[in-house]
Write a structure and sequence with these properties.
Shape: elongated
Low-confidence stretches: 1-20, 454-461
Helix content: under 10%
Strand order of the largest sheet: 1-3-8-5-6
Largest sheet: 5 strands, mixed
Number of helices: 1
Structural class: mainly beta
Strand content: over 45%
Distance between the termini: 123 Å
Length: about 550
């Protein structure tokens, strides 16, 4: 028997509103997070062609949701159907990714469900329609704010190559990086922790690509904290050229080239911001090892956990060529720093008026050359002012001379101090003097070096045979090259260039014990005046090489 129409209407009114309320789908716009307190909570998004699409949820503190993405919606009470992938991370962000590169998933709306397993808090949804393309070896954009839930990237990596995935974080956000690859499935979906997630890390990480392909790289904010980050993919890209005395922020790339053109002591260093710990190393060759080092021929390093890390080199012996510096963060380092290279030329004249310097947050270090003689005591007169934490370091290269290039880490200084300090020289040569600003505060200092004879050599002889003072130095036109003989001997002085080639020879014949000197007019053996530049005077006594000293020739 047919029922009256009025008897049916009340049933429709009860069912329809209830079904609509319980299958209420949030409509997600790319990159715009939305929250829901419903359980289950539903959201809908519409992928586009172009790359990987990434969707994620984060539960409120004290709560936990399981998250799934479905191909279709359904009638109440199920609301969704045809599960594509599910993520059930006990804490942090649940992530599901789909491959929408051409030839993979078909377009159309996708439906997600978050089911609360614990607690009573909300769940936050976020969807990225197309992952941002990254090119390995290119620098990142400026610091990005930590995502509400997720940020998605995509990079083409070549199989067998090792890359460095750099996640540089600042602030309180608990950021993690997830790496996915579609092994070849046309309708590909994957979840955090699933078999197609290749890597999860919160730090800088080496990654060897298993095949040449596009990879999905997802940054998740596991606790919803605030902060910022840089993310880039690195593969032995060309180093950045560091200009002398021009500080630059520590960041990408962390490999630098020093185009050495002056034969002086030179230093390169990094000062970290509070909370960060950047170390530095210098290499002889710009290639030869795989990522992440890339450089070869380590010459010096500094790995302190506080203050300025720096490496200083004596380039007075040539050859003049590029050297390479690499900065690396220490364990748990968060934040950046400031890098500076000082190539000179700066020389300190003994017993001269003090040098006056000011310093601030833009200064890391400064380098000087100072000539010491054995048998003398020296005082580094150092008077710092202001809030800057200033310290000086003195370095000696016992192999100084043609081909005597050497680099030293901060802790290899022969003397150091924050006020006046002394040093007694036992060898002859140009010493390197470095002043650093440890904290980047504003201040200033005066610096000078004074000397006094440590012992009276006393005529008629001497206890040691040594190369003496070159005067004047720099030399213009004519000058003298001094020496001291412990006994009578045949004396010869050879002038060599920075490549170690002899350009002039001065024969002194047999000389008595004690001090002496030979004069030189700045000309080569063939009588042609030599070009302006750095040369070395090498003392030969009875055919034995005794020592070498640097001199500058001016035309």
């Amino acid at each position: 028997m047919r029922r009256p129409l009025l008897a049916v209407l009340p049933l429709l009114c009860v069912f329809a509103p209830g079904a609509a309320a319980q299958c209420n789908f949030l409509t997600l716009a790319s990159g715009v997070p939305q929250s829901s307190g419903a359980n289950p909570a539903y959201a809908r998004f519409v992928p586009v062609v172009g790359g990987f699409t990434v969707a994620g949820t984060r539960s409120a503190a004290g709560s936990d949701h399981a998250y799934g993405v479905y191909a279709a919606s359904a009638a109440f009470p199920t609301c969704v159907s045809n599960l594509l992938a599910q993520s059930a991370t006990p804490s942090g962000v649940d992530v599901v990714i789909g491959d929408y590169r051409p030839g993979h998933n078909a377009l159309g709306g996708r439906f997600s469900q978050a089911v609360r397993n614990a607690g009573s808090g909300d769940v936050s949804f976020e969807w990225e329609a197309t992952a941002t393309e990254l090119v390995p070896g290119e620098p990142p954009d400026s610091s990005r704010p930590a995502p509400a839930v997720i940020d998605a990237y995509q990079a083409f990596l070549e199989g067998g190559n090792t890359y460095t995935l750099n996640l540089s974080r600042a602030g309180a956000a608990a950021l993690r990086l997830l790496v996915f690859r579609n092994p070849g499935t046309p309708t590909f979906w994957a979840a955090r922790g699933g078999p197609n997630m290749l890597l999860e890390t919160g730090e800088r990480m080496l990654f060897t690509a298993p095949a040449s392909d596009d990879y999905a790289l997802v940054v998740v904010n596991d606790d919803g904290g605030t902060g910022s980050y840089d993310f880039w993919v690195e593969i032995c890209q060309a180093p950045d050229t560091l200009a002398s005395t021009v500080p630059q922020p520590e960041g990408y790339p962390d490999r630098l080239v020093l185009d050495v053109a002056d034969p002086y002591w030179q230093a390169v260093g990094v000062r970290s911001v509070p909370g960060a710990d950047w170390n530095i190393a210098v290499y002889d060759t710009g290639r030869g090892t795989p990522e992440p080092v890339c450089f070869a021929g380590l010459t010096g390093a500094s790995n302190r956990t506080s203050g300025v890390d720096f490496v200083v080199g004596d380039l007075s012996g040539g050859p003049l060529k590029p050297f390479y510096a690499r900065t690396t963060p220490g364990p748990g380092s968060v934040g950046g720093g400031l890098v500076e290279w000082d190539a000179g030329p700066d020389e300190i004249t003994l017993n001269d008026v003090p040098i006056l310097r000011t310093t601030d947050a833009n200064d890391v270090l400064e380098t000087w050359d100072v000539l010491f003689q054995p048998g003398h005591s020296y005082t580094i007169d150092f008077n710092p002012t202001g809030a800057a934490a200033l310290r000086w370091f003195l370095f000696e290269n016992v192999g100084q001379g043609p081909g005597g290039v050497a680099w030293f880490g901060r802790d290899q200084a022969v003397a150091s101090g924050t006020a006046d300090g002394g040093y007694s020289a036992t060898s002859e040569g140009w010493f390197g003097l470095v002043v650093v600003n440890e904290n980047g505060a504003t201040g200033g200092y005066t610096l000078s070096v004074t000397s006094t004879p440590a012992v009276d050599a006393g005529p008629p002889g001497a206890s040691r045979t040594t190369l003496g003072v070159i005067a004047p130095n720099p030399m213009r036109g004519r000058g003298s090259i001094g020496y001291t003989l412990a006994r009578p001997a045949r004396v010869r002085i050879e002038v060599v260039d920075v490549a170690g080639r002899r350009v002039a020879r001065l024969d002194g014949g047999t000389q008595p014990a004690g001090p002496g000197a030979l004069t030189w007019d700045g000309r080569a053996d063939d009588g042609i005046r030599l070009d302006t530049g750095v040369y070395f005077a090498r003392l030969i006594v009875d055919e034995a090489a005794i020592g070498a000293a640097r001199m500058v020739l001016l035309r």
